[in-house]
Automatic annotation (TrEMBL):
One of its GO terms (molecular function) is protein-folding chaperone binding. It comes from Simocephalus serrulatus. This is Probable prefoldin subunit 6. Heterohexamer of two PFD-alpha type and four PFD-beta type subunits. InterPro entries: PFD_beta-like, Prefoldin. Keywords: Chaperone, Coiled coil. One of its GO terms (cellular component) is cytoplasm.
């Protein structure tokens, strides 16, 4: 019985490690989006300071190409909207992974108690 519990415990630990690995990857993605959002907000603020006749250039490869100010503002706003949507999606994923981790911790705690009880019973019989 203890061998079966030990094997099951190992499987549950592996599941928990996989959840933690996925959680860390999502957190890293979330942090990257935060920095992109900050950068795009700064660009939007700078574009909003410009007069309507100002020259705006976009870097495409090694070349600076003139771009319409309104088009540049629209592009930045679209990027900000996209990043905000991705951030919300990742927040939901983080919340779901938190719940999975909590559930897995509880399962591991119960298995650990069962394993300890089985070891105590085995020790009493010996």
């Amino acid at each position: 019985m203890a061998d079966g519990l030990q094997k099951r415990m190992q499987q549950e630990v592996e599941k928990f490690k996989a959840i933690q690995k996925e959680y860390q990857a999502v957190i890293n993605s979330r942090q990257q989006l935060d920095s992109q959002l900050t950068e795009n907000n700064g660009v939007r603020d700078e574009l909003n300071l410009l007069e309507s006749d100002a020259n705006v250039f976009k870097l495409i490869g090694p070349v600076l190409v003139k771009q319409d100010l309104e088009e540049a503002r629209q592009n930045v706003n679209k990027r900000i909207d996209y990043i905000a949507g991705e951030t919300k999606r990742l927040d939901k994923t983080i919340e779901d992974l938190d719940k999975k981790q909590d559930t897995q911790r509880e399962a591991l705690g119960k298995l650990q108690q069962q394993l300890q009880q089985a070891q105590v019973k085995a020790a009493m019989k010996a």
